[in-house]
Design brief:
By secondary structure, the protein is mostly helical. 69% of the residues lie in helices and 3% in strands. It contains 12 helices and 2 strands; from the N terminus they run ααααααββαααααα. Helix 1 packs antiparallel against helix 2 (39-81) and helix 5 crosses helix 6.
């Protein structure tokens, strides 16, 4: 400004309100004549804060995107490595255990549910597409929505999703499990399927027989997929997380209702496509609940550590 001399000029990142206060103080003390302050100077100061805020928002989004993508790449790498030597035998043995557990609990109804819908090929194909796409699109979309529209809750929900995913990796290594579509439940009794009767299978691999947008036999799926990563069901675990996000943060009642329905539809999809047992879904719920519990414990521990030790600390 013309005729304005100060020992410490305000930095560019000073907000419009702070700049106005500084200038008002200088005018009051006579350091800056009021006539020397031009309207353009005030407008320039006011424009700096939004520009800096926009730059920070862009860099923050890029940082979060890199963090999430890096974590997901690490997850996929570790998940694929869980299909190590010997995992196949353990996975099929564990499938027998799960079937026996479900039979003892009287919840072994996956085959009956699948058989009821196999005749509607168009419907099964739609469920295959649902299973293979929305699992990623809805979860990623809600993460972005949280960051842009509900930023106060973003980090808390991001950490919850990440912790749940990390716990799932432990399950894949500790308890490899062949999904129902790979389970050979009989050797002589024909089982009805979309292509007629087959022997040696209780379940139909709907993606292989009916089709969808991709296949387990594709080069990409072969490279990154672990067919024995069924327990816990991260499809269902992530859908529960998505449901909580929609129910807790959405303003519209219809979206909150969708938050309740989405995990239920996902449960149906993972069963009718023979990719998971009901107990896999229970495992998905358990990792989500356990992850939430561990994060709450961490927060309480940090709060206790940051709290003053006693009256002497306040003096």
């Amino acid at each position: 400004m013309a005729g304005m001399e100060t020992d410490a000029p305000a930095p560019a990142e000073v907000g419009a309100a702070e700049a106005a206060n500084l200038l008002a103080g200088d005018i009051a003390t006579g350091d800056v004549p009021a006539g020397d302050i031009q309207a353009g100077d005030m407008q320039a100061g006011a424009g700096e804060a939004p520009a800096a805020k926009a730059r920070n928002a862009r860099s923050g989004f890029v940082h979060e995107l890199a963090l999430v993508l890096g974590f997901y790449y690490l997850y996929q790498t570790i998940r694929s490595l869980a299909d190590h030597v010997g995992a196949s035998n353990r996975a099929h043995a564990n499938a027998v255990r799960v079937v026996n557990w479900e039979r003892s609990l009287n919840v072994l109804h996956e085959q009956a549910i699948q058989q009821a819908f196999l005749g509607a090929r168009w419907f099964i194909k739609g469920v295959n597409i649902y299973y293979g796409t929305l699992h990623f699109l809805v979860t990623a979309g809600l993460l972005i929505w949280l960051y842009l529209k509900r930023h106060d809750g973003y980090r808390r929900m991001r950490d919850w999703l990440g912790a749940s995913t990390a716990l799932a990796l432990i399950g894949y290594w500790a308890f490899p499990l062949a999904p129902p579509r790979l389970y050979a439940c009989n050797r002589s009794i024909p089982v009805a399927g979309p292509d007629g009767y087959t022997i040696g299978k209780c379940f139909v691999d709907t993606l292989a027989k009916v089709g969808g947008l991709w296949s387990y036999e594709s080069p990409v799926a072969t490279a990154v997929a672990n067919q024995y990563a069924a327990m816990p069901s991260l499809h269902f675990g992530w859908s529960v997380w998505c449901g909580v996000v929609m129910y807790q943060f959405a303003a519209h009642r219809s979206v909150r209702i969708l938050g309740v329905l989405y995990p239920l539809v996902t449960l149906f999809a993972i069963v009718v496509t023979a990719n998971h047992y009901f107990l896999d879904a229970v495992g998905g719920v358990l990792i989500v609940v356990l992850a939430k519990y561990l994060l709450i414990r961490r927060t309480r521990h940090r709060s206790t550590s940051d709290a003053p030790a006693g009256p002497a600390a306040a003096q």
